[in-house]
Amino acid sequence: MIRFSKVNKWYGDYHALIDINAQVAKGEVLVICGPSGSGKSTLIRTINRLEDIQGGSIILGEQDIHAPTLDLNQFRSRVGFVFQQFNLFPHLSVIENICLAPTTVAKKSKIEARSKAMSLLERVGMVHKANAFPQQLSGGQQQRVAIARALAMDPPVMLFDEPTSSLDPEMVGEVLAVMKSLARDGMTMICVTHEMSFAREVADRIWFMDAGAIVEASTPGIFFTAPQQPRAKRFVSDLRAH
Amino acid sequence: MSDHLQFSAIFAAPFGEQLWAGLQVTLWITCASWLLAMSVGTFLAIMRMSGSGACGKVVTAYVAYHQNVPMLVHILLWYFGIASLLPTGIQAWANEHHGEQIFAVMAIGLYMAAYFSEDIRSGLRSIPSGQYEASRSLGLGYLKSMRYVILPQTFRIAMPPFINHTVLLFKNTSLAMAIGVAELTYTVREIENQTYRTFEAFFIATMFYVLVCLVLMVVGAITAHMTRIPTTSK
Amino acid sequence: MIEIIRDYWQVLLIGQYPQGPLGGVLLTLILAIAGLVLSFPISVVLAILRISPFAVLRIPATVVVYTVRSVPLIMLVFWTYFLVPLLVGKSVSGVTTLLCTLVVYQAAYLSEVIRAGIQALPDGQMEGARALGLSYVQTVRKVLLPQAIYNMVPSIISQFVSTIKDTSLGYVISVQELTFAANHVNSQLLTKPFEVFMILALTYFAICFCLTELAHSFEKRVAKKRLGTQPTLSGTTNDTILES
């Protein structure tokens, strides 16, 4: 579904992504992990072009996402993105947050958008807060709304950039539960996360990144028990130490 | 020194009508200048945000020039200076049709536009970049992001300085008297000259200014409260 | 334009002196400096009254400040022109009138600047001083004010710029400051009003712009010294409190 071919990115002189060649299949749940500064967030942000690349290509479906004829806004509306900082719109209520893109980008009617929004809120367990404003919600509640907002456009793929890293520990579980149910429903998901429990339970594959390159790519079963690369070995043993 | 205060002398004809006319001129100049200032100020803010270096410099120069030259000097420059550069036909037309009011509106409006654009700019700067990223990620283009996500938040944040500068704009209309605009301060001085009721005349004008300023501040506070972004209730 | 400057620079710089009173840029600066210096003590007192826990002190001070801020400066000038001779018993010159008005006007605005500066200090400052046994007055004098005033130097410079611009109102009451001098030049030349008034505008611009840049550079120094733990006082108060 997603194919990275010789993807390279520089920030000035700093080589942030080094020769990324990899694929993600439809329906696959991929977890990207690694130490900070390894390029995991950068990589996931290239998929919806929040970051641009200087070399190589990224194909989503059959579409080269850097083709000059591409309608960037329509493309982005088909890729769901969940931020570490939630980034809900504070001047809109929860339901307005979810309906904004469907009504203005997909040109759906208000009624259609609202009913879809309500069913999504039910799915993430936030129906009772439909008319609340983001600042009135806890972190975990906000992130669940953010997931619903991303799902409102029926994207074929969902990207998660450290979705639980800003949350207090007791709220991590409710967000992971939503993500797990999405995975079970067959959504194609790419998650940058430190939550290894999620990786172990739901991920089909793991990419371990370090210093801008994918150092090891395997399944959770193999990765957590017998990592191959020395850096990956160190990472996994640090995990066990906690 | 007057023995008794005689407010009735001020309100008697023809001074009563003059006073009323002066009030109207003050209000119309305030509204016209405010509209000019808001449109130009918003335009400047958008220009600055366009990312072009040249646009940014032009706006910075505009703001620096207008904020570092006194309001009165702007008015004099427009009325004496720029008016003299216009073709004689337009000058004649202006003389017939209260040109001094138009020049006053231009001067005050463009002056306050600098302040309004700075208010919008600081409002924009205080919005986290994540807001813009989130709206772009949902597929909203630049204009839609501005319209639905960024600008609504900007105007709410910029509301307090907006109100203060609106009050400032209203007070600045009094300077138009220097070029003969028959607004309230000018009118009151004329009345004072003719009736020698200095205290009463000045008192009326002062009361009006204080009242309108208070009303503006109260209306501003109410508007800010009604459109505020709700904060945490827990 | 160069010819005008060449011919009339003296009038613009120092007015009719020595054939007449001092004027031009010099008078503008003298008025502004005198205004700031004289209004400073008043504004400090007003600021302290405004934050006083005693309503009988706080409310009158608040009323005074709000009233002065709600009246146009030109109106205040006319009031002063009318009231001061009554109070003093004899007629006063335009310069004195303008100076008195500036002092009152700037005192109100400067008091807001100082009040914001004091209130922006961390609560811990007051608490720490009281815990050491200092009285309220001693705390304000020795602990709060020095810090507040240092932090507020950029805003005070901005206020000074504001005062310089306000001196232009001398034009209306025949005080020979810069704007009046420029008008005088124009009434002599008659043929080049745009050039004369442009020179006037650019002169103010040169003076005020340099001072504003000075304020900005001082702001950076204050921010560095205080380790950025304090909010950007000049940033917020400039927007909400200062005028012009």
How is this structure best summarized?
The complex is a heterotrimer of chains A (242), B (234) and C (244). Chain B has 234 residues and is mostly helical.
List the helices and strands and how they pair.
The complex is a heterotrimer of chains A (242), B (234) and C (244).
Chain A: E1 2-11, E2 14-24, E3 29-33, H1 40-47, E4 55-60, E5 63-64, H2 72-77, E6 79-82, H3 94-104, H4 110-124, H5 139-151, E7 157-161, H6 169-184, E8 188-192, H7 196-202, E9 205-210, E10 213-218, H8 220-225, H9 230-241
Parallel strand pairs in A: 3-8, 3-9, 6-7, 7-8
Antiparallel strand pairs in A: 1-2, 1-4, 4-5, 9-10
Helix pairs in contact in A: 3-4, 3-5, 4-5, 5-6
Chain B: H1 7-11, H2 15-49, H3 53-68, H4 71-85, H5 88-96, H6 99-125, H7 129-137, H8 142-172, H9 184-195, H10 198-226
Chain C: H1 2-14, H2 24-50, H3 55-70, H4 73-88, H5 94-119, H6 123-131, H7 136-166, H8 178-189, H9 193-225, H10 233-240
Notable characteristics:
heterotrimer; B: 234 residues; mainly alpha; MetI-like fold; 10 helices; 0% strand; globular; C: 244 residues; 78% helix; disordered C terminus
